[in-house]
Structure formats: C-alpha cells, structure tokens
C-alpha cells in the first residue's frame, strides 16, 4: 500500500507521518530529505545565477529558499529540475517497498499522487502554521507568510482523508488512518 501525505508548511506533516508510519509499520519517505540529496553545489549555483548572484562555495538553504519563495515562476523552474531526479528515486522506492508512506508538500501536483492508494491532507489553522514555521525554521513572520503565499494551494476534495493537526493527539489522527486502511 502506498500512502501519500501532504499539506502546507507548518501543518505537521513530518511529525504526523513519522507517528503514523511507526504505528502501522510502514516505511516513511520524506521527500524534502531526498531533495537535500539531489541539490548539489552546481544546481545551487545555477539557481543563484537566475538572480544574478555570484557563485558560492557551499549551499545556503535559507538563502535559496528566500530567493525561490519570492518568485513562483522560478520556484516552478527549480522544481522542474529537481523533480526528475526525485521521481526516479521515488519510483525505485515504490517498486521495492510493499508498504510505504510518502510525505511531500508537492505531492498533489505530481504523477506519484495518482499512484497513492490513500491520499491524506494534513492541515492546521494558518496562524498556528506560521507560528510553527517561524519557530522551526528560525525565520521572521513576514518571510513565513511570503512562503505561504507562493506555496501550493490544496483542494480538500482530492483527498481520502483531511486531518486537522491542531489541538489533537497523534493517536487520534492515527486511528483515522487505520480505519481507512482496514476498509
């Protein structure tokens, strides 16, 4: 079974995914970590060149994010370059794993979404998500809102389950997922 979990920044995707994966004994793939593997210094410097910035000797992910989230067009261009490498790796993992959960904020706009047997959207109120992102990423609130503005918009009708990850215990969220798996 392939479970796809997605949602906006700060919704708690990673925490929920890890908890559910451990509870139902599924392997978990956080695609953000795969992106870190795919992003090399050459690609990083290529992206910097899009902003007429000089090459650097090391990757500064915060700088990269601040630039990319300022332009939806360039974010899409970046994602297209990284996307192919990610898809190859994900398809390998899907082919070799019986029970897998994929955590990816871009999942709904990929072909992998259609492969998912169960599609879950994790949500939380905007102000709570912004608070979490500011704390987690150590960024200012205005930048968190900018990232939100340029992020993916989710249509809850596309999902088998929508979980509000606010003032709820992870055990309760997991029970909802287990109910759907047992159907």
What is the topological layout?
Blueprint: E1 2-6, H1 13-24, E2 27-30, H2 31-38, H3 41-50, H4 61-68, H5 72-96, E3 100-103, H6 112-115, E4 118-123, H7 126-137, H8 141-149, E5 161-164, H9 170-182
Parallel strand pairs: 1-3, 1-4, 2-3, 4-5
Structural class: alpha/beta
**Helix proportion:** 55-70%
Mean pLDDT: 89
- Number-wise, the strands total 5
How is the biggest beta sheet arranged? 5 strands, parallel
Distance between the termini: 13 Å
Give the strand order, joined by hyphens, for the main sheet: 2-3-1-4-5
Give the DSSP E fraction (strand runs of 2 or more residues). Answer: 5-15%
Overall morphology: globular
CATH class type: Alpha Beta
CATH architect. name:
3-Layer(aba) Sandwich
How much is the radius of gyration in Å?
Answer: 17 Å
What is the domain tally? 1
Which fold name is given in CATH as the topology? Rossmann fold
Summarize the structure in short.
With 183 residues, the protein is an alpha/beta fold. The chain is 55% helix and 13% strand.
Description:
With 183 residues, the protein is an alpha/beta fold. The chain has one domain: 3-Layer(aba) Sandwich (Rossmann fold). The chain is built from 9 helices and 5 strands, in the order E-H-E-H-H-H-H-E-H-E-H-H-E-H. A 5-stranded parallel sheet has the order 2-3-1-4-5. Helix 1 crosses helix 9 (170-182) and helix 2 (31-38) packs across helix 5 (72-96). The longest helix has 25 residues, at 72-96.
């Amino acid at each position: 079974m392939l479970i796809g979990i997605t949602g906006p920044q700060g919704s708690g995707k990673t925490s929920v995914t890890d908890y559910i994966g451990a509870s139902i004994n599924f392997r978990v793939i956080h695609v953000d970590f795969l992106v870190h593997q795919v992003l090399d210094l050459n690609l990083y410097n290529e992206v910097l060149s899009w902003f007429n910035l000089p090459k650097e000797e090391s990757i500064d992910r915060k700088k990269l994010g601040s630039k990319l989230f300022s332009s939806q067009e360039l974010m899409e261009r970046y994602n297209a370059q990284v996307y192919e490498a990610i898809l190859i790796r994900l398809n390998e993992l899907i082919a070799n794993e019986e029970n897998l959960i994929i955590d990816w904020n871009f999942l709904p706009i990929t072909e992998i979404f259609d492969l998912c047997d169960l599609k879950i959207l994790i949500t939380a109120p905007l102000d709570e998500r912004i608070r979490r992102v500011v704390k987690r990423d150590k960024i200012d609130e205005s930048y968190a809102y900018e990232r939100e503005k340029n992020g993916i918009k989710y249509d809850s009708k596309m999902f088998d389950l929508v979980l509000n990850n606010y003032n709820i215990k992870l055990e309760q969220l997991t029970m909802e997922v287990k109910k759907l798996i047992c159907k």
